[in-house]
Design brief:
Elements: E1 5-6, H1 9-14, H2 24-37, E2 42-48, E3 54-59, H3 69-72, E4 77-78, H4 99-105, E5 108-114, E6 121-127, E7 130-137, E8 142-148, H5 155-158, H6 164-181, E9 186-191, E10 194-198, H7 205-213, H8 215-219, E11 221-228, E12 231-238, E13 250-254, E14 257-259, H9 262-271, E15 284-289, E16 295-296, E17 307-308, H10 311-329, H11 337-347, H12 378-381, H13 384-390, H14 410-430, H15 438-444, E18 446-450, E19 459-463, H16 467-486, E20 493-499, E21 503-508, E22 511-516, H17 517-534, E23 540-549, H18 552-560, H19 562-567, E24 571-576, E25 579-585, H20 594-607, H21 613-628, H22 638-650, E26 664-668, H23 669-675
Parallel strand pairs: 2-9, 13-15
Antiparallel strand pairs: 1-4, 2-3, 3-8, 5-6, 5-8, 6-7, 9-10, 11-12, 12-15, 13-14, 16-17, 18-19, 20-21, 21-22, 22-26, 23-25, 24-25
């Protein structure tokens, strides 16, 4: 163990002011970094009540010598640096020498430590910065630190703490980041008596990623290994098809220290240009290794922001590392049909599982069984006429019914009908009936006279035989009623075409109209969602619930806003360890859009914690409508474009998309003729 030195005032002034211990996550970060610097290969963390009442960290590192234990709790006492020149080449995670002193000042701290050379360990306790115990103790090699009753003597800080669940999730976020940066260390996290995380410590980053984020995220990654001008970039980046709606799953490490770097983020996203959709962001776990002399980590108290001596070199290395990995290792996504078949077979009820029969296939010949001897019944002993002769007629009951020989067997007929129905159902399942054309449907429509309440006059309405058609007819009745009340019948609309597969061009009321189909459809869905919420229309229950993996901060935000999601039509449940499960969603949302919608909303809520509940619900509607709307560049049929144009032009509420962009641009006939010189 290196000698503990109390820094001089000159060196202490060169070090920026340390980060104040704000919450249990700050304590966990500092103590786990000390364990890593001590050379530990196994670290166990346990917390209770979110870490407010109890934090215990045990490691198998080098330990602290008995005479140096009291020094470790003094301000600016560290074994990491000894003079001014050491600040230019910092290899360790901690170096300020103020973590233990800051923690001990606001809690009841106990330490049990032993070095390999010592025969017995040392037990030391500090309460509110005052030493309460210092004695020999038996313990294994390594260090165990227990922090109890955080902020017990500073109530002003205590009241700024959040719920225990939120504080525990913040601790879990710190543990995840440390586990990803040091796959060679086995990290075990115990939360409220239950094991929340354990990493194998096999020095394989993929194993750590699998332990932290699960199989789905780990399987979507490709390996990155590249070196340029002395800068080495290692780790994993996602395949282009697995890009996410936010940057929340981007993790950058500098010499195994978690950092936030805009230049690295921009360089990686540039490498994905022309490979992912607009609005999607790649995810990654990348470690950048550079000489410590070329970077200054003493910039921010949290040590998450750094300053490079040559930022362009680092950015170029990140760009080419990710770009080369995409070009070499990216493959087209594959669909596991066997797995899909198994899932559909499990989800399909037995009543509709039919055997596929091919007419040309040879039928297996059945072996004829010997006829079983039938039990001797009364009708085998006598004929029906003999039985009728034995029955005495009564004036009260009348003749007793007896089936004559020429009447059909009802039981046999019923079984035969059942067999025919099963065969027809199987044929219908194999050869579904194609939807009828509009002309064919018109021939089947029955016209009836329906009276509509005043002030609308008697009107002929086409009533459809099916339930959906009846609903369409009723909606049409409402439209007719509204039009007649306004005494403005809708003018005919003529569809002219589409520009760039994005803008619908039509002629309406002596005007040429250009409609942004994505913005228009987005606004229509948004209005329907709000209307459904006002009418308390129930959400749709998903046949197969969808799980969404989130970073711990976003995970905590989503759980804290479950009521907001419920009011917007989503039923969320905590699935544990950064995963939420979606069981219900609004009727207008497709199952493929649910995961991206929740991820994007979680990112928004994390950045706008202070927004009011109506603002959050409105944002959920915005995001969901944007995901569910027709995308620009998508090819639509003529009928679809005309129907969308009619909804825009006949509804005055559809003028701007939820984000404020215009939906419709008009060019009148007068302006058009003026441009061509027809009107002076």
């Amino acid at each position: 163990m290196a000698k503990i030195n109390v820094l001089s005032k000159h060196i202490a002034e060169l070090i920026a002011a340390g980060e104040v211990v704000e919450r249990p996550a700050s304590v966990v970060k500092e103590l786990m970094e000390n364990s890593i610097d001590a050379g530990a290969t196994a670290i166990t963390l346990e917390i209770k009540n979110g870490g407010v009442t109890y934090i215990r960290i045990t490691d198998n590192g080098c330990g602290i010598e008995r005479e140096d234990v009291p020094k470790a709790f003094l301000s600016h006492a560290t074994s990491k640096i000894s003079d001014e020149s050491d600040l230019n080449s910092i290899f360790t995670l901690g170096f300020r020498g103020e973590a233990l002193a800051s923690i001990a000042a606001v809690s009841r701290t106990e330490i049990l430590t032993k070095t390999e050379k010592e025969e017995s360990g040392t037990a030391y306790a500090v309460s509110g910065g005052v030493q309460t115990k210092y004695e020999p103790a038996g313990c294994p090699n390594g260090t165990t630190i227990v922090v109890r009753d955080l902020f017990y003597n500073t109530p002003a800080r205590m009241k700024f703490l959040k719920r225990d669940v939120s504080e525990a999730n913040a601790v879990a976020d710190v543990v995840d980041k440390i586990a990803l940066s040091h796959p060679e260390i086995s990290i075990r996290f115990i939360r409220e008596g239950k094991q929340a995380l354990i990493t194998p410590g096999d020095s394989k980053l993929k194993s750590a990623i699998y332990s932290v984020f699960g199989r789905v995220f780990a399987d979507s990654l490709i390996e990155v290994n590249y070196e340029l001008d002395g800068v080495r970039v290692e780790g994993y980046a996602c395949k282009p098809f697995a890009a996410r709606p936010s940057r929340s799953m981007q993790f950058f490490y500098l010499n195994k220290r978690y950092i936030k770097s805009r230049s690295c983020t921009a360089s990686m996203e540039n490498a994905y240009k022309n490979s992912i959709m607009v609005g999607k962001f790649p995810s990654c776990v990348l470690n950048i290794t550079i000489p410590p002399q070329t970077v200054d980590v003493n910039v921010h108290p949290a040590k998450t922001e750094v300053r490079f001596s040559d930022e362009r070199r680092v950015s170029s290395a990140v760009y080419y590392a990710v770009k080369s990995a995409i070009e070499e290792l990216d493959t087209a996504p594959k669909v596991d049909l066997s797995r899909i078949n198994k899932l559909t077979e499990k989800a399909r009820p037995e009543a509709i599982q039919f055997t596929m029969i091919e007419e040309d296939a040879p039928k297996p010949q059945k072996q004829e069984k010997a006829p079983e001897a039938k039990p001797e019944e009364f009708w085998n002993k006598m004929t029906s006429k003999q039985f009728q002769s034995t029955v005495v007629s009564s004036p009260d009951t009348g003749n007793i019914y007896s089936k004559s020989s020429d009447e059909p067997d009802l039981l046999s007929s019923f079984k035969k009908q059942q067999r025919e129905n099963k065969i027809k159902s199987a044929e219908a399942y194999q050869n579904p009936v194609q939807p009828k054309t509009v002309e064919a449907k018109k021939e089947e429509i029955k016209t009836e006279t329906v009276k509509i309440v005043p002030p609308v006059k008697q009107e002929e309405i086409k009533v459809f035989p099916t339930a959906k058609s009846q609903q369409a007819a009723s909606e049409r009745m409402v439209e007719i009623k509204a039009v007649k009340q306004n005494e403005m019948p809708p003018r005919p609309l003529r569809l002219l075409g589409e520009a760039f597969k994005t803008y619908i061009i039509c002629e309406y009321d002596n005007r040429v109209c250009l409609i942004d189909k994505h913005a228009a459809h987005e606004r229509i869905i948004y209005n329907k969602m709000k209307k459904n919420a006002e009418n308390k229309v129930s959400s749709q229950v998903l046949l197969a619930p969808i799980t969404v993996t989130l970073p711990k901060n976003d995970y905590d935000i989503v759980l804290a806003n479950r009521l907001v999601f419920k009011k917007a039509g989503y039923l969320l449940e905590d699935f544990g360890d950064g995963v939420v499960i979606i069981r219900e969603c609004p009727m207008l949302i497709s199952g493929d859009d649910i995961e991206d919608t929740v991820i994007e909303i979680a990112s928004y809520l994390a950045e706008n914690r202070l927004n009011t509940e109506p603002e959050k619900i409105d944002r959920i509607y915005h995001t969901a409508a944007c995901k569910a709307a027709i995308k620009a560049g998508y090819k639509n049929s003529t009928a679809e474009m005309k129907a969308l144009a009619e909804q825009v032009l006949y509804d005055d509420e559809v003028r701007y998309c939820p984000h404020g962009r215009p939906v419709l641009i008009e060019l009148s006939k007068y302006e058009l003729e003026k441009q061509f010189g027809r009107i002076q």
